[in-house]
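Subject: Sanity check before I submit

Could someone independently write out the structure tokens for this chain? I want to compare against mine line by line before I put it in a report. The sequence has 185 residues.
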Amino acid sequence: MKKNNKKVTVIGHAIISTDCYIADAHGSMPSDLRSNSDWELFQEDLNHSDLVVIGRASYEKFSENKRNRLIPTNQINGYKMGDDLCFFNPNDIPMSQILLKYNPCPNKIAVAGGQGVYQLVFDQFGYSEFHLSVKENYELKEGIQMVKGITELTQVDDYMNKYGMYQSDTVRLDSNTIQLRYLQS
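---
Independent answer below. Compare away.
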């Protein structure tokens, strides 16, 4: 999407196990899946974003945060917009249209997940970048995958390529975590 001929930057953020899970079967992130280095980079990017797209469950867990947030949910019709918070039903109004409701329109959008949110942005809008952190030597074996049906890192790469993204860089964040950075081609 462009605003005044200026491209909107959309950056996805996720941390996954080597078998591509973002949460356990209960929807919680196990402590072994966390990385302080990843968390600091993630928070820094959220702090420099005009808008954060986050799932309803994550919003409920971190609702005290006063960032400007966009929450897709099928539990309402249309959209409900407040000062720093907008709930919208992506089946009623596409993401590109809900973004036009913001004044000013956001220049930088951070996507914090979960699974449905990542998929929604891939399908309805697209990413400029995706910062995918991977906890090496850690498998969940069951739970919530970043992308439904993808359980191997090679599949993630193929999936990103399908949406016109390529891996531009790999950065070591700590002794157990790397970050794969994807860019739109």
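---
OP: Matches mine. For the report I'm noting this point. The chain has a mean pLDDT of 92.
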